[in-house]
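Protein modeling request. Please complete all fields; requests missing the sequence field cannot be processed.
Requester role: graduate student
Desired output: 3D structure, token encoding
Chains: 1
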Amino acid sequence: MKHEDYVRTVYQILKQHVGSEVRSFGLYSDPCIETSILEEWLDIVKMKGVKEVDLDFSSTFNFPHNLLDGETSITTVKLTRCVLSFPDNFNGLRSLTSLTLEGVHVNSRLIDSVTRNCLFLENLALIQCRGGDFSLCIEAHGQKKFKKLTVANSSNLWKIEILVPTLSAFHYRGSGRDISTAFFGSFLRLEDVVLDFINSKDFPDLPTCRLDLGRVTVLTISSTFLEGNGRKSIFIPILKEVQFLMEETSYCNPYDIASFLTNCSHIERIFIDLNGFSFNCGHYWEFHNKVLLENLQFTLSHLKSVKVKGFKLQIAELSLVKFFLEKSPVLETMVLVTPKNQNRKVNVKDIDMCRQKFFSWQLSPRAKVDVFLHSRDRSSLHPTHSKL
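Delivered output (388 residues):
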């Protein structure tokens, strides 16, 4: 569609909207859009009390801050692929509760302006943000409602400092370079955490970044996390749900998962996404960890459900399934889903042969084990967290 046709179409849609209110406004445009036209469109939806604004541009588009200035009804903003900056006297977005910046050029001054000005902010997400090196510092004196921080693949972020006692959710995906120098106030009461580290070379030590998981109830971790901290005593006594994201480049074996769970005495739901991963079953597993797993004296006394995606019926995977079935007296549901990759197809006959083993292993008389081909997964069992 030509630029002129695009502009004309958007105008027609806005003018033909006969309702008195507009709940959300989403725009996917190019850098050729004139600022005056964009301002006019935003004015139209502002007059109708728009709450949610989602604007997706090109990385070369300089987003004018005055379009978000002044008193508005906007509570949710997502800006994608643009350059954004606020002046020192910026006073817009005071009613904002959620801000997502994706592929946006950001710096410390911008982050400071947002956290200082948006006093009702509850959720902040920085996804694939770039530009010069910047730090993320949020302090308690201005923020009373801040609950959730998401940082994903923002390679230029070099420091995280969170001193907000209201923060309850922290979702992170990245190399770990930035979080290795992170500081989280000791008064934090985190309940919902994602730690998806993708580079074991930069993996941070949890005590170094002072991240307390003691009150977490929902957790997602990568296999890199297990490599870096799995053999340390990280107690998460009230954890209810855990999801393991297994990376193809990691060297975990089933015992790494089992030993981590020994410190999660109230776990109820376990999700494992193998994601093309195969357990490392070399000599260390065969002559050391395999024996430890078989002799592990531990009961998953609260575990009710397990789901494994990418299940290939490999021997190590079956060892883990056996562990769950033998150690879970109240288990109700186990769902095993074969890989999406057609090159890793599982023979249906092999599945049928394994069903007898599953039955002989299970401790819980109510446990039901379902095996689905990836394309036929009908289970309603899903993790709280989606991938960042």
